[in-house]
Amino acid sequence: MSAVLSPDDILGLDSIFEDDDLEFASIVKKWLDENVRDKIGDYFLDATIPARELAEGLGELGLLGMHLDGYGCGGSTATQYGLACRELEAVDSGLRSLVSVQGSLAMFAIHHFGSEAQKEEWLPKMAAGKAIGCFGLTEPDVGSDPSGMKTTAKKDGSDWILNGAKMWITNSPVSDVMVVWAKTEETNAKGEPVVRGFVVPSDTEGVQTPEIHRKISLRASITGEIVLDNVRLPEDAMLPEAKGLKGPLSCLSEARYGIVFGVTGAARDALQSALEYTGTRVQFDRPLSSFQISQQKLAKAFGQYSQITLLAAHLGKIKDSEQGVRPEQISLGKMVNVDTAMNVCRDLRALFGGSGITSEYPPLRHAVNLETVLTYEGTHEVHQLTLGRSLTGINAFAN
């Protein structure tokens, strides 16, 4: 009996997607294979990535903001975007993060909450990869509680003055524009400061974006801070349609959807590489794949990969439907898929023996990256509590 060519073959997973979506995904895969895959191990070891060069290439492919309409964006389906994320993360989570932060956070915020002038100024350049964006919400001492935000925006005549700091911001050191969220002096019905979003060109006086070094995860991604020291912005820098935390949280939900699909690519790549390695690596005069324990690991990983792929596909179908996807459904996808994909990569790493800890083979790199993905855009625990609230009707966040 011959071996399968792809982990998708046994269950016929490709049959759940449209031919046009699969064709686009294959174009993305081909470009990544030709331009990035052979270099990604070195990028990871060197803790860098040529973000500007890649952004232009990804822009030419039509991946940046591809699920948005107009302004140079492709207007694709959610499923097609998800499949593109799968191919990106099959190479490295850092690549998917680059595309996700650009399109689903920075561009999505401007597209959904920005003025017409803001959209026309930034979205075409960002879609083409000529301008890189970042999204400034997370702060050093706040983490999963954005209501504890300390960054402020105060009026000075018709201008805004921003002060504060953001932490763990993908793309910030190489960004041209940033969407920054800050508390204003305006209050809501509860007397709490209202959070507003601002479009901040990165070369504005008072803005610094120092890079964060010494990461041991998501190393093929440029991460930094945003430091705002009396940054003066014109009145029209504010996103007019975003008022309160609903704005930034809706952006995060959009980005989490890409993660749900993306991590299936990391699991698939780890499984594919394990099938190839165990089929050719001879031990005790037999290929590793002939041993029962090897097949047990491979079978378990295949089952887990199939499950998370089906969940991602189902959420894509819901998101593309008229009813749309709900935040708790996205929380389910991120909670289950990231944790499962991480465990797949960890388990399969053992099949490579000592070689598995080198950059020559991808499972450990994927597993280490997924430690970051498990944390960002809502920790595993936050999504558990979100689902717990939906299941029981009780909010346990404050308990």
Q: Please, could you describe this protein's structure?
A:
- This protein has 399 residues and is an alpha+beta fold.
- It has three domains: 13-132, Butyryl-Coa Dehydrogenase, subunit A, domain 1 (Orthogonal Bundle); 134-244, Butyryl-CoA Dehydrogenase, subunit A, domain 2, CATH 2.40.110.10; 247-392, Butyryl-CoA Dehydrogenase, subunit A, domain 3 (Up-down Bundle), CATH 1.20.140.
- The protein has helices at 19-35, 40-46, 51-61, 78-91, 93-113, 116-127, 246-280, 292-320, 327-349, 363-375, 380-392; strands spanning 69-70, 73-74, 133-136, 152-156, 159-170, 177-187, 193-201, 207-208, 223-233, 282-283, 286-287.
- Strands 3, 4, 5, 6, 7, 8 and 9 form a seven-stranded mixed β-sheet that branches. A two-stranded antiparallel sheet has the order 1-2. The protein has a two-stranded antiparallel sheet with strand order 10-11.
- A hairpin with a 2-residue loop joins strand 4 (152-156) and strand 5 (159-170).
- The longest helix is centred in the middle third of the chain and has 35 residues, at 246-280.
- InterPro entries: Acyl-CoA_Oxase/DH_mid-dom, Acyl-CoA_Oxase/DH_mid-dom_sf, AcylCo_DH-like_C, AcylCo_DH/oxidase_C, AcylCoA_DH/ox_N, AcylCoA_DH/ox_N_sf, AcylCoA_DH/oxidase_NM_dom_sf, Glutaryl-CoA_DH_mitochondrial.
- Residues 243-391 form the Acyl-CoA dehydrogenase/oxidase C-terminal domain.
